[in-house]
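ingest -> validate -> predict -> emit
validate: passed (alphabet ok, no gaps, 255 aa)
predict: started
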Amino acid sequence: MSISNSSDFIRLLKKHPENFYIIHYSCQSLYDDNEGLSPRITSIAISHFATEQIISFSTHAIAEELGIARENVREKFDEIELNLLTNFYSFVRERKDKFWVHWNMRNLTYGFEHLEHRFRVLGKNDAAVIPVERRVNLNDMLSDRYGSNYAGHPRLPSLMKINGGEHRHFLNGQEEVEAFREDQFIKMHNSTLCKVGFFHSVIRKMVRGTLKTSSKGWGALLDRLFESRFAKAVALIGTLVSLGIAAWQFLPLVG
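emit:
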């Protein structure tokens, strides 16, 4: 089964929230200023939608578990990154059939293929590959529901600002590059965690019809309608009418 549009996405989320995981990761620069040909993976965060439990794999935690001092992380990075990805794929292996919600993890530059590639570069060929049809791009779901202009560019920080503001741990692409250069791996990890948390919030608001966007289309109008005072008034009237009918049916029994 695959998800082709936002209606499918919301319907399945409501029916089987336990089948959805949200994933995001941080890495070295996505451009040609790295010592290698592909960016190293520095942290991966996964949130289980139904329980809100977060599992994460990070450079600083792996280094500490391996007994590698901060000043030796660079020279031991292959060992650290391999352990990080090995732990990640061990987690994925029994959950490949679930839905994996991501933010533009589309290709070898930044995406599931990038993670698989780094695993192979480090000498492993047994990555637990998540089928393409089980990958759900949240950005695409939002565009489908609210229109392509649901937020300004860059979309992620713009959507954050519309819905309460940027998280204090949020780093944009350039800031993550600078954090890597300064060996600020905890800072990068915190940014990854805050983004996964935000995606979780966006999905919940999307399901409830309370997500704020810049869109002017029918999808956005309907969402705003259902969260408006009018909708609340209609719901109240419906409740009162139901109570009245119940009382009317009960009166003959009392008499």
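Strands lie at 20-27, 41-48, 54-58, 99-102, 135-137.
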